[in-house]
Design brief:
Layout (H helix, E strand, L loop, with lengths): L1 H12 L3 H6 L4 H11 L3 H11 L5 H21 L16 H23 L22 H22 L19 H32 L16
Helix pairs in contact: 1-8, 3-4, 3-8, 5-7, 5-8, 6-7, 6-8
């Protein structure tokens, strides 16, 4: 029990410990996220552009897979009750935040793929940021949504490859416009925002388990959600 307590305390003192373990597997997604977490918006765009150059998709796709693996691990380890707990984003539950994250990761990649193929629809809807996923989704439903997002991100990557520097008409009210390859990167940055919230949730649950009590736990500082 003492060993568990010590690990929990170390994790709470190092709230980005989860990021350090993911960084070797997804360095090009973690770099702009670190700038975002440190509240350096200009550095975010600089890092996104740096890693999203010509031919970058082949390097980035395995990194997206690593991030999806991290989501999968969280889905498998969270207790059933956690999905109705606060998700760290506005007043969303964990289920709503995860449903939103999985929809956004595939949506951003597919938008970039459409632009890369020259098939951007003239009547494309305006992006509405901060739309939660379904509140009633449980573990099985969220695992299906994650699996679907994996397939669609992989499919989109084939179209974006070789067109990373092409412009994309997608206009986001908070992010503005990015190139096709840059949207592919930013989809991963957005994923990490929600993984950070899950890490805070897991740390809080671990503290409850060690202490044997039920209490509120800290969530990461809320950055206004993007996609």
């Amino acid at each position: 029990m003492q060993a568990v307590r010590s690990r929990t305390i170390r994790r709470m003192r190092d709230p980005r410990g989860w990021l350090a373990s993911l960084e070797p597997l997804a360095p090009d997604l973690v770099a702009p996220f670190r700038a975002l977490a440190d509240d350096r918006p200009l550095a975010v765009r600089r890092e996104v552009r740096r890693v999203a150059g010509e031919g970058s998709v082949g390097r980035l796709l395995p990194q997206h897979e690593a991030v999806a693996d991290a989501f999968e691990a969280c889905l498998g380890s969270l207790p059933d009750a956690a999905f109705s707990m606060p998700g760290g984003e506005a007043d969303w539950t964990v289920a709503e935040a995860l449903g939103h994250a999985f929809e956004s990761r595939q949506g951003l990649a597919l938008a970039a793929a459409l632009a890369a193929r020259g098939r951007w629809p003239a009547d494309a809807p305006i992006v509405v940021p901060g739309v939660p996923g379904p509140a009633g989704a449980g573990r099985d439903e969220l695992q299906r949504r994650l699996a679907r997002s994996r397939r669609l991100v992989e499919r989109a990557s084939r179209s974006i490859a070789g067109h990373e520097l092409d412009s994309c008409p997608l206009e986001h009210p908070l992010v503005g416009r990015l190139r096709c390859g840059e949207w592919f990167v930013f989809a991963g940055v957005h994923d990490l925002m929600h993984l950070e919230q899950l890490a805070a949730l897991e740390a809080g649950l671990a503290v409850e388990s060690v202490a044997g009590t039920r209490r509120d736990f800290a969530t990461p500082p809320s950055r206004r959600d993007v996609p």
